[in-house]
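#struct-help
A.M.: can someone run this one for me? Single chain, 751 residues.
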Amino acid sequence: MPSVRRPILGLLCATLAAGALHASEAETWAFEPARDRFETTSLFDLRSLNEAVAGQSGFVRTDGQGGFVRGDGHPIRFWAVNSYVAHQLEPTPRPLWGPGGDDLTHHARFLAKRGVNMVRLHRQISPDLETRPDAALTDINEAERDAIWRSVAAMRREGIYTTLSPYWAVPMKFAQRWGIDGGHEQSALGLLFFDEQLQAAYRAWLRQLLTVENPHTGIPLARDPSLALFQLQNEDSLLFWTADGIRGPQREALERRFTDFVRQKHGSLWSALWAWRGHALWRDHLFQRRLSLLSLWELTQPESGTGQARRLADQTEFFARTMHEFNRQTVDYLRRELGLQSLVNAGNWKTASAERLADVERWSYTPGEVDAVNHYFSDIHRGPHEGWAIVNGDLFTDESALRAPWRLPVNLRQTRGRPIMVTESSWVPPNSHGAEAPFLVSAYTSLTGVAGYHWFAIDQDAWAMPRSANGYLPSLQKWTFGTPEILGSFPAAALAYRRGDIRRGEPVLVDERPLSSLWRRDAVSLPEQPGFDPNRDEAARQLLAAARQGSVPPETFLVGPVQVAFGAEQARVSTTDLSRYIEPQRVRANTGELALDHGLGVATIDTPRTQGVAAHFAQAPEHQLSVLGARSDNDFGALMAVSLDGQPLAASGQVLLQYATRSLPTGWQDRPATLRLESGSTVQGREVVSFGQAPWRVVQPRLEVSLRNPGLRRATVLDMNGMPVSELALQRDADGVRLRFPAGSMYVVLR
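D.P.: on it. Structure tokens below:
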């Protein structure tokens, strides 16, 4: 751990909730950036990190070690976003998500300048019955396809690859005249894995999406190398709680499939009952040769050596193989019938139990080449519109990942040899600690080898200003990363990540698992933390928090990669000596480049070309790394120094200093409040008194910086577009330079 001043009251202060921003106008600056015109006099522009045209060297491939390479074999990491921006000439009168957007061309260039090289398009290509009530089940939503086509074309011109997510069961609606089993009012969740009518329609949509020529590029998506990753579906699983919602004829069809599976595995239905020691359910229809399915809750419970345990193992295997077979058949259809050359990800969802079922879910993805997960850093948020908007009277908690680093969205169990990506994530408002997010994501995805992180989401072509979430209810938008402290922190964080400034560590834990262990749902020694969706994950989060004193602490994810190997002959967990890296309230990476003190709330990066500190500075104001020094009077912030010319910071002739604090809408007010948890216990949080309005107001920097580089002569203050604003006084000595970070800015370039 680097040198840090630890006040006597630091440990007490660290236990207090940070609360939200309360600052006078004099202590903040109004965030009203000019529209970026991409002038050549800008002192940072990361567009050159991208290819001239995405895919110009061929299709992205996996490297066999958990990463990606371009078509020419050059390694590539993806700093990615979810975008709902569509051109202002959007032909559909009612885009499914977002208001329609602004200028796609400007949007793509804006993202590329700030280090983005992948965009995820999460659209819905199933027929839209509101705009086309006469549509057949096999008809594609042409407006959505056109939005995809235009987005892919705009992004590829700026060297930005695409992740395409074309289907989600949640918004899927059925027409009564389609005659789908179970009726038109049922949810589509879970059905795609086994309903043959829906599967046939899905394949018809894919054919129309992927094989028709994109009029904006002249080639179909199946042959477009800028389409790097194709996701079969979004957020659905037979191992999540929603599977219990499959009812009526669809439930009966799934149970018949289960019965067929059991008969094939055991030779007969009666042999299966013998293996289960006669464990039958009162609702089994034995004379109809149909076995009932146990609830998902049963699959989350420990069972061993009983007839029910053996039945549960068979049901778990059945669910896993049903999803695996759908994924296998669909990948085969994409490759053989449609000619898709892009990499495929089968799914990105969680399960009813991270300890017992998450590895089963990941095994079901193996017909595709890439694993993925949607995983947010989000606290408790209670209110009438908590799923999508912030309104007055809402209650919330406001935790920092610096103090709960085991909850980082990139703490993932990685299938050995396979890339894994986070396809949706952010620090979700009203959380006020977004400044730490790009810093920590850049650091720990680099350390663990997570191959890409997609920030969620943006539907404006540049910054997301405070505004209503839907255009008609007075509220504050919730699902956005386009704030000053998150999007504004992209340049340094993206450069460090994509350039590989922070080294990947050696595996710190390898979990070798026979498939039989998956079917038995054996609890793993180091599970991933819940998402955390405050509406659904609170109970799971409390259970895992109670287990933090286990033999493998959750801080292990912060030491190095955690890997899983499926199909081993016998179960075995191999770990490094964790005592070398984990101390009470502190954890170091096994590369020696990252350190985190979650007692004080301090993280540091110390590499030759990138250094930085993200901290609750009120508890730890002073920090000295090998080259970078900092002292701050802000209560919270994140500082990064990156070499722009690729040289070590100690000798670089061009260094970007980037500093983010907090921001909230103008007029935001909150007050202390008590929240009651599902368990009946209470926690201290905040109540929104006023959600405010545009513009953002950003806490002024109160920061002194030193750099041990005696060759630096000039300091230039930049605006949010990297344009020079003014020269800043430097104090120089034989060791290097010192400066006070300027008011009203996030960037300074030293030359």
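A.M.: thanks! Residues 62 and 78 are 13 Å apart (CA to CA).
D.P.: also worth noting: The chain has 13 helices and 40 strands.
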